[in-house]
Protein: Mannitol dehydrogenase family protein
Organism: Chromohalobacter beijerinckii
Amino acid sequence: MTPTSIPSTHAPAPVGIVHLGLGAFHRAHQAVYLERNLARHDGGPWGIASANLRSNRQLVELMRERDQRYHVAEYTDSDTLTLREIAAIRETLYAGSGGEDLEALLARMSEPGVRIVTLTVTEKGYHLDPADGRLLLDAEPIRHDITNPTQPRTAPGMLVEALARRFTAGTPAFTVLCCDNMPDNGKRTRRAVIELARRRDEKLAEWIADAVAFPSSMVDRIVPAMSEAEFERLRTLGIDDPVAVACESFSQWVIEDDFPQGRPDWQHDGVQMVADVAPFEAMKLRMLNGSHSLLAYLGALAGIETVAEAVGRPEFAALLRGYMRREAAPTLAMPADIDLGAYADRLIERFTNDSLHHRLQQIAMDGSQKLPQRWLTGAQKQLEADGEIACTALGVAAWIRYTAASNLAGESHPVDDPMAETFAALHANHDKPEPLIAAFLALDSVFPSELADDARFSRAVLDAYRTLNECGVEEALTILDVP
Ligand code: CS2
């Protein structure tokens, strides 16, 4: 394979954006759009300062050693690869516990030249109740930030402290752009920040409510965690880069156009600027992420390792098509030019990309934070309209079985979830399906009570759970009324 290489040649750009969450996704998504922007202008005011808040100090050190330059390897398929050099990130910081850079980060966020703060801190990084979006005031990190507001540990805490400094100094507020996979992600972030600010100073909370814009956004690009095998593959192509990221060539970013302090003209870089992101968010969460989670739990129970391997099996591909057409698409109200059938076909094609070693275990993590927006809102809408929920119920049953920390062959796997201890206790206390399913559906931070109390839903989950355990995944797909 001969990759197409695109070097970075633009002039260094001063920092205009601070980003919280220097993970692979940020480096392969937002930073690539900004790189295009800086390349078009040969610089400009929108360089990024990017910080890790909780883990991976080593990445920050490696980025610094490489003068903040790295490569993004975009695979269209196993024969087509574009290698981009990215220099949009101008500064990296580590503000985790013991992080010497916390003060530097807060100082950066307080500078007048910083007009946007973007975030990818994952769903759990906001410390919101996944079902109703309330700030979890009793969560330990939030309690810490309430007691030590000037030494925050959480993303909402850092936003509040930086905004407090701007408020005191008379510096205009920055715009907060959430780029995590949550519905109404701007509104949710706003709620977290204002609820936290209110614990500190009512005036500050009022100012934030009036002065800070929190546009919503939909982000999309499949970016698997890097593996040693992928680093090795890149080395064979001449790229010896310990902070390289590999991803698919597809990328989408839809942003609500609400930036009172200005923004990059990134509509020329492939970003879709719209008045209302909600339909795009719902489409992506229920169709793409919902399908991903179906593959993750059912595939993991069947001992399958990657997305491409799972979707390569006809029964899984049929399940995804059926789920999207019969259970997800009917819940969506899209602008006239969006064809959900074509969107679904494109997703299956993207999942089939076998150049990406996208592990199901990576997608399976944090189910408690993901299920509501991926499956449960859709299931509620379907039940209201007397629609089908068989695939979703099967997914929920597979998730519950997955949280027992073993697959159907009895091989164990880790359960990476903020509620993992609760799940372990539920499995330990209930060895019969009926009470176990009832106990899971009673977790009100995951399942809205109207859904848990709907006998059509609970019965379908219980049936699916029994069938999965008794017959295995493949047969369950045939027996249950799924496509
Ligand atoms: C995945 C997402 O890990 C997961 O939960 O479903 O990270 C997914 O790959 C991205 O949202 C694609 O844009």
User: Anything to note?
Assistant: The chain is about 50% helix and 10% strand.
